[in-house]
Write a structure and sequence with these properties.
By secondary structure, this protein is of the alpha+beta class. It has one domain. It is built from three helices and six strands; from the N terminus they run βαβαββββα. It has a two-stranded parallel ribbon. It has a two-stranded antiparallel ribbon with strand order 3-4. A hairpin with a 4-residue loop joins β3 and β4.
């Protein structure tokens, strides 16, 4: 698992500390360029990038993508874990 953010380093450190994250967290991504590359929603008025998430299989295919256009609609870790466990049990 990895995460990336448009937040600056200090804000990213706060997030890591606040949530006790143990996985890599990238920071400082450029807003508009990141939105364009991911197809994410960029909100001009507030200059923010809405949450976008992906579950990627070992063969590097995207099996789930999530694009939020507001404050709800994020990937929930319990759902992602269940999905990963399902795929691990499924015949190949």
């Amino acid at each position: 698992m990895v995460a990336a953010s448009t937040d600056p380093l200090e804000k990213a450190k706060e997030t890591v500390s606040e949530h006790s994250l143990t996985f890599p967290l990238g920071y400082g991504l450029p807003l508009k360029e990141t939105a364009a590359a991911l197809g994410a929603f960029y909100e001009e008025r507030r200059n923010i990038l809405q949450s976008t998430g992906f579950v990627v299989s070992p063969d590097r295919t995207i099996v789930v993508s999530q694009y939020s256009s507001g404050p709800i609609g994020r990937l929930i870790w319990q759902d992602v874990l269940g999905l990963v466990q399902f795929y691990k049990k499924s015949p190949k």
